[in-house]
């Protein structure tokens, strides 16, 4: 099957699930290349990555600001907007650090097992860094006052942080 028709088939299946075109493109490329993002490990003392980064989508909504503007407190609305931007940037920096650490650990695991796959690692780097860049772009759009859907952040996070896979014990 030619690459283009396979890509079109995958994109058609993802249309129903993902509404954002860039995230859909990244997901279809990951599917076509057979690349999955490295799982972010979490210890017993910290919540899973999906829960840790869930507030990012709430920080880019303008509901709190609009509420404060409607209540006649524009100073508080501007203050909460600045606070949301700061928190979003911190979340993004932490997510970037966690994703890069997971990729490094996966590379070390591949090297120690002797199953080094450069193309898989390169695909993960390109796709995850593109997603992180897109999340940063969404933050800049919010800073400029452009309203955006929290769905865009959620879809990008769903792509970056896949559902947890349960380890299968070898017998």
Task: Spell out the key features of this protein.
elongated, disordered N terminus, mainly alpha, 171 residues, 8 helices, single chain, 70% helix
Note down, in words, how this protein is organized:
- By secondary structure, the protein is mostly helical.
- It has one domain.
- Helices cover 70% and strands 0% of the residues.
- 21% of the residues are buried.
- Residues 1-12 and 165-171 have low confidence and may be disordered.
Rg, Cα atoms, Å: 19 Å
Mean pLDDT: 75
The rounded distance between the terminal residues' Cα atoms is 37 Å
State the order of secondary-structure elements, H for helix, E for strand.
HHHHHHHH
The number of domains is 1
Structural class: mainly alpha
Beta-strand segment tally:
0
Shape: elongated
What does this entry show, briefly?
This protein is mainly α and 171 residues long. It has helices at 3-15, 21-33, 49-52, 55-59, 63-70, 74-113, 118-143, 150-160.
Chain-wise SSE layout:
Layout: H1 3-15, H2 21-33, H3 49-52, H4 55-59, H5 63-70, H6 74-113, H7 118-143, H8 150-160
């Amino acid at each position: 099957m030619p690459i283009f028709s396979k890509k079109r088939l995958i994109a058609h299946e993802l249309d129903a699930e993902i509404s954002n075109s860039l995230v859909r493109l990244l997901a279809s490329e990951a599917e076509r290349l057979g690349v999955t993002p490295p799982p972010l490990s979490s210890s017993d003392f910290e919540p899973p990555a999906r829960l840790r980064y869930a507030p990012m989508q709430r920080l880019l909504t303008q509901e709190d600001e609009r509420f404060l503007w409607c209540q006649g407190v524009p100073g508080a609305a501007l203050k909460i907007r600045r606070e949301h931007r700061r928190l979003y940037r911190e979340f993004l920096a932490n997510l970037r650090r966690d994703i890069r650490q997971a990729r490094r650990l996966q590379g070390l695991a591949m090297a120690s097992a002797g199953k080094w796959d450069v193309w898989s690692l390169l695909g993960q780097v390109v796709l995850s860094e593109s997603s992180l860049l897109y999340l940063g772009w969404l933050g800049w759009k919010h800073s400029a006052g452009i309203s955006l859907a929290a769905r865009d952040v959620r879809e990008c996070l769903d792509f970056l942080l896949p559902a947890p896979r349960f380890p299968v014990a070898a017998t």
